Fold this protein.
Amino acid sequence: MKNREKRESAVRLSYIAIGTTKYSAVMKAAFVLSPHKVVVEDAAIPVLGGREVMVRVEACGICASDIKFFNGLKSYRETPFGRDSPGFTGHEWAGVVVSTGQDVKTVREGDRVVPYIVTSCGLCKYCREGRENLCAEKRYIHGGFAEYVKIPEQNLIRIPENIRVEDACLTEPTACCLHAIEQLNLKPDDTVAIIGDGPMGLLHLQLVRKIGSRVIMIGHHEERLGIANKLGADLVINSLKVEPFEPVMEATDGYGADAVILAINNKDAMSNALKLVSKGGRINIFAGAHPDYEISVNPNKIHYSELTITGSADALRKNYHEALRLMKSEAVKPSTIITHIFPLEKIEEALEAMQKRVAIKAIVKP
Ligand SMILES: [Zn+2]
Ligand SMILES: [Zn+2]
């Protein structure tokens, strides 16, 4: 038996052995012991409860939030530093069900799945309104930088057959973009400026193109802007070389962009968005900003121009299903932004590659 098979039969046995004394099955998992210190070590495979499912992780994307956590800039109640959080913050995963708790009804061994990563109280005003991403009790389901991850049945979504794992693992970021785009009420004859040529900017580009709106991509990495071109951007602006205002005005008959997506959030992002947006236009603050950033906005700009400024955080469950449907019909291929694939043992290199912007999107395959 190969090592992985051996471990998998241990996973099944360990489930059967719930309630008995020792737990022997082990897996490889990454841990962030303290900021900037990540190790890959053996960890106990968690025991399943009745409505829980064990998934073998096939691929897990590295998200900006993983890097923030790695750098100590962000903490999660559910993911402390140290050895208590196997697979730490990895949430952009796709995998295969290897074992199910006794009360699980909707998935079975062999099903390919992705996680819906949010859990919430289900009772508050926001949960009642279907906006569980705003719930004060919101928690995330993490743990994808490991061979196995345990997840409640209700947080699993089955992957349609023809979707490659490299696309499926990016369901969550794609869903987040869809949630942001939803707030902008885009129409096919709109022009959308996307500020930020990182992985999320490039995902936004693909989705906005799908709606039919024209896209102006603004960034400052030649390689990424080259990809934006290939993905069908109508205009690409390298803001290191040219001030975006004039070309954006030229491309929109002097009106400005109907909508602006902030896929990056540095100090100037919002003031740039306000310069580029047309009257009656919409801005979505998609990217999180450094906690110390403050912006000052002249209220008259919003008042007289009738601007709408929106935010978006995470995604709703329905956005995950939409994302998978778009992948199934090949309308969107999130994997086009993947430039680097690392084995789990090299997760530190993967984090570095993203951090130093060598990679556009790096994924890890345990
Ligand atoms: Zn993410
Ligand atoms: Zn709630």
Q: What stands out?
A: Residues 120-121, 123-124, 126-127, 135, 137 surround zinc ion (ligand 2) (CB under 6 Å). The longest strand covers residues 52-61.
